[in-house]
Amino acid sequence: MGRVPALHEPLKKILGGSTAKVMAEHLDLHTAGDLLHHYPRRYAERGELTRLADLPLDEHVTVVAQVAKAAMKTFNHGKGVRLEVVVTDGSGSLTLVFFGRGAYAREKELIPGRRGMFAGKVSVFNRTRQLLHPDYELLDRDSGAGAAEAFAGRLLPIYPACKQFQSWKLTKAVDTLLDLFEAEQWQGLTDPLPPSLRDGRGLAALPDAFRKVHRPRTKADIEDARARLKWDEAFVLQVALARRRHADSQLPAVARKPVAGGILDAFDAKLPFTLTEGQRTVSAEIFDDLATEHPMHRLLQGEVGSGKTMVALRAMLGVVDAGGQAAMLAPTEVLAQQHHRSVTEMMGELAEGGMLGGAEQGTKVVLLTGSMGTAARRQALLDLVTGEAGIVIGTHALIEDKVQFHDLGLVVVDEQHRFGVEQRDALRSKGKQPPHLLVMTATPIPRTVAMTVFGDLETSVLDQLPAGRSPIATHVVPAKDKPHFLARTWERVREEIEGGHQAYVVCPRIGDDLGEEGDAKAPAKGAAKSASKGGPEDEAGQAAAGGDGERRPPLAVLDVAAQLAKGPLSGLRVEVLHGRMQPDAKDDVMRRFAAGEVDVLVATTVIEVGVNVPNSTVMVIMDADRFGVSQLHQLRGRVGRGSAPGLCLLVTDAPEASPSRARLAAVAGTLDGFELSRIDLEQRREGDVLGQAQSGVRSSLRMLTVIDDEEVIAAAREEAAAVVAADPELEALPDLRTALDALLDEEREQYLDKG
């Protein structure tokens, strides 16, 4: 071709239209850069290959193996033929099956002793693992000694592939690309790492890294390449975050210093308990930030019940004392209402500023949500504009254009991972100058993830529970293996209620074919029955059956509630709560549950955050294997909030050896949220965490794993901070600028500039 392929060159030009189309549609690969960064998932060696013994069912796999025996068989009274080829790699064997005319053609090629790569979906027939009509590429097909020789010494890259485009086709496409780059001596390649950093850390040059990752000669090659490519990812991401922090630090903000004798002092004076050591330390960090003339950007992490709301409320009151307003944003209406209720309760007459019987240094606390009546909404908006309301609590409705503040000084965001960068920015534009920002999360985030996902925020951690909190015991209830355990579960619930306490039962779905807040809308026939007995198939069971979609729908609130009220919990006051209920109906149920007029609340995860009913001591989570680790930890934090110990029972149909059960055992085994979030992350991989958390950064991590590469991330963060401090616009580093632009889609770039 004779020209330099640039990284953004479309694959269509390099590989031809039809190949490029398949790669774009099925693998999301569009440019030369995409393909270069599509790294092998693993490498097979000619001697030691994928262990056939470990093949996962129902997954598309590529294996390298040797034909052990092949036999043609007839069926259907001799009318049909099939070729059965057994291949082995020493660890186990696998049967390849070909039917019909294709069988004869393949019989000539697949003879004992030949080696090849085989790709297909693993299924089970007659207790034997098999690939049906697999695609294959024989490895010793070329009789030329040279080809066999070249092959013998090579580690085979096995790429993340798909049915339409197998791993060896990817190898060929990558080879074409590498040859082009080699011919042009990699002229068009931009290297994001500054040379001083690369040399200082002994990292491979970029062309070397690409060569070694796609065509390694030794395992050391792979290690070199990985070390280098991980650095690229970590460094570019950290530079993006460092630039955002730098831009933020340049913004002006009004310093908000609390005044003596104001609403904060009045509030502290009537607190019935003393703040924990942790609460005092974190409060001091926040008040220090608020006193500066640059906007605070702080992430407050704390376990459920560690008293984050108290810390946030004191910060808001300090800002009100300094003449500003504070807004608290919650992800859902239910939560906004709960925060409003708990804040007004904590503040008492201080929340009735300007009203009869309110305290003189009080202020008004208003609620603003999408479903409010027109009159209430008009009044709330008026209170905000005039400054009558010092504190407003609401949902995204607060961000709408119509909402005007008198003087917005502080924004508190609850549960950041449901709140994207653009919403933070929209809120910022509400102040005369950017307001201070405090982000709260009850999901403990390991340090590396915090550095990667929330790298533009300073972090404070509340890690001690307030005095008087009781420990929570958690047990797994294997309903399918041991139905009597489930019967005992409902007896335990009854015992707690007879002892004057209350219970939650959480289900993954609403039922009534309403679907769940974001869940599958599958009907739940037969599901309710399994609330009192063990239920039908679970995912691992279904996989073993080789079937697809036989897994029963998740248990539903409406069915389970009806079943419990008629059966094991008859005679008790059982009510339901879910996201599709009218706000006032939800409020009413919550109020009666809090007042002790409801014994058992059967709910979806709407209760995950913020519900505080100290009298509830037991929680039963149905189909617990359908929730994530962090979510289970969050949910269980709702019980044991008073002086009586909490009990959480995780009911599951998952078989004993399944990954789901291992996950539940981890939750039952520790109350340490940081430990669990680590386990959660190892299981879910980072993509979800990053994808969820930062709307703008596509999970650009291909080589880096947030958990294992802690050192790389921490080092990259330091290097990035130094580079940005010395040259915020990266004028001396055009290649880094280019890499940054590629990482940050145009829209994300706008956020950064707005930042």
Describe this entry's structure for a reader.
The protein has 755 residues and is of the alpha/beta class. The protein is 40% helix and 17% strand. The protein has 28 helices and 21 strands. It has a 7-stranded parallel sheet with strand order 11-12-10-13-14-9-15, sandwiched between helices. α10 packs antiparallel against α12 and α11 runs parallel beside α12. The longest helix is centred in the first third of the chain and has 32 residues. The protein is globular. The C terminus is likely disordered.
Strand order of the largest sheet: 11-12-10-13-14-9-15
Spatial gap, N to C terminus: 44 Å
Unreliably modeled segments? 143-149, 514-550, 686-699, 746-755
| Rg, Å, rounded | 30 Å
Largest sheet: 7 strands, parallel
Number of helices: 28
Structural class: alpha/beta
Query: How many beta-strand runs?
Result: 21
Q: What proportion strand?
A: 15-25%
* Helix content bin: 40-55%
Average of per-residue pLDDT values: 80
Shape: globular
Per-chain topology:
Layout: H1 11-15, H2 17-27, H3 32-36, E1 42-44, E2 60-75, E3 80-88, E4 93-99, H4 101-109, E5 115-125, E6 128-132, E7 135-138, H5 145-152, E8 156-158, H6 167-183, H7 195-200, H8 206-214, H9 219-250, H10 263-269, H11 277-290, E9 297-302, H12 308-321, E10 325-329, H13 333-347, E11 364-368, H14 374-386, E12 389-394, E13 408-414, H15 421-428, E14 436-441, H16 447-453, E15 458-462, E16 472-478, H17 483-498, E17 502-506, H18 529-532, H19 539-545, H20 557-566, E18 574-577, H21 583-594, E19 600-603, E20 616-621, H22 629-636, E21 646-652, H23 659-669, H24 673-684, H25 686-693, H26 710-726, H27 734-743, H28 746-754
Parallel strand pairs: 4-6, 9-14, 9-15, 10-12, 10-13, 11-12, 13-14, 16-21, 17-19, 17-20, 18-19, 20-21
Antiparallel strand pairs: 1-8, 2-3, 2-5, 3-4, 5-6, 5-7
